[in-house]
Amino acid sequence: MARKSRKTSLRKPPLQTPGARSVPRAGATKGPKAAARRDAADRIARALETIAAAMTAATEQIDNHAVMTRADAFVWHPDGRLTPVSQVSRVDLTLLKGIDRMRDILMENTARFARGLPANNALLWGARGMGKSSLVKAAHASINAEAGGRLKLIEIHREDIESLPGLMELLRSSEFRFIVFCDDLSFDGNDASYKSLKAALEGGIEGRPDNVILYATSNRRHLLARDMIENERSTAINPGEAVEEKVSLSDRFGLWLGFHRCSQDEYLAMVRGYCSHFGIRLDDAELEREALEWSATRGSRSGRVAWQFTQELAGRLGVRLAAR
């Protein structure tokens, strides 16, 4: 009986295009080299995003010199921006009572500066709530009206004082004249930013820009806390020079204008001035009685207390405190 022959089926290998790579098996992309390639791609993507963001920011960067034409008052930011303030919170100069001498001195100094004449940096120091910052803003508004809008007010916050030299450099080339204003200026503890203020006031080689003046308010005459001076005295090689270094900061202000607590008559004059200005009508004896009672509950008499009483009285009588 004839033996059947076993047929062997031979599979032909698949055709492969010369130079083509074979498709890797599943899981082959999980090796160290593949992971390194993915990490490199991620880093490149992040770098490109950073570059794109920087280019966008540079394209949209605000031209501060163009911004200066949009308003009369600004707030300075340490990243180099000036933000226009369309409506400044201020009171009319005629409503500031009990500070006549300081008002006249600051107004004269500001007027001279606006005319391009020599003028001094000013430090307004003393009792709280007596109109130090209000006087600066009111003086600017009054003099700027006469100067045709060429006098600008720029506020720099106390915590941003280290950026003051940069602001000075920005303003140096401007056609406008500037009052740089810092409210409630003082230094505590190990704060060394006072050196930036001192450098800006001295101006270094170039000197303070002729078109810039600095007005600051403070509750302290010498700006620096007593413990700062004592610490410097105890650690310095020459204690006398250390104290002189600290105290000399205030000397950079040519004008020292002191504000003291007001008398009862001055306080009542402030209240009557506000009531007259805003059309608040009340019998004078009753007005005086309520105003004194209000100040007694606050434990002090000041322009701020007089204004707070005026707000309370106006609200109770249904009078809106709109400008008249």
Low-confidence runs (pLDDT<50, min 5 residues)? 4-10, 57-61
Strand order, biggest sheet? Answer: 2-1-4-5-6-3-7
SSE topology string: HHEEHEHEHEHEHHEHHH
**Fraction in helix:** 40-55%
Distance between the termini: 131 Å
Cα Rg: 34 Å
Q: Which CATH architecture of the largest domain would you pick?
A: 3-Layer(aba) Sandwich
Number of domains: 2
Quaternary organization: single chain
CATH H-level name of the largest domain... which superfamily? P-loop containing nucleotide triphosphate hydrolases
| SS class | alpha/beta
Measured by DSSP, the beta-strand proportion falls in 5-15%
Mean pLDDT: 82
Shape: globular
Number of strands: 7
Number of continuous helical runs: 11
**CATH fold topology of the largest domain:** Rossmann fold
Give the CATH class of the largest domain.
Alpha Beta
Give a description of the structure.
The chain has 324 residues and is α/β, with parallel strands linked by helices. It has 2 domains: 66-259, Rossmann fold; 264-317. Helices cover 46% and strands 11% of the residues. It contains 11 helices and 7 strands. Strands 2-1-4-5-6-3-7 form a 7-stranded mixed beta sheet. The radius of gyration is 34 Å and the shape is globular. The N and C termini lie far apart (131 Å). Mean pLDDT is 82; it is low at 4-10 and 57-61. Residues 1-10 have a biased composition (Basic residues). It holds the Pfam family DUF815.
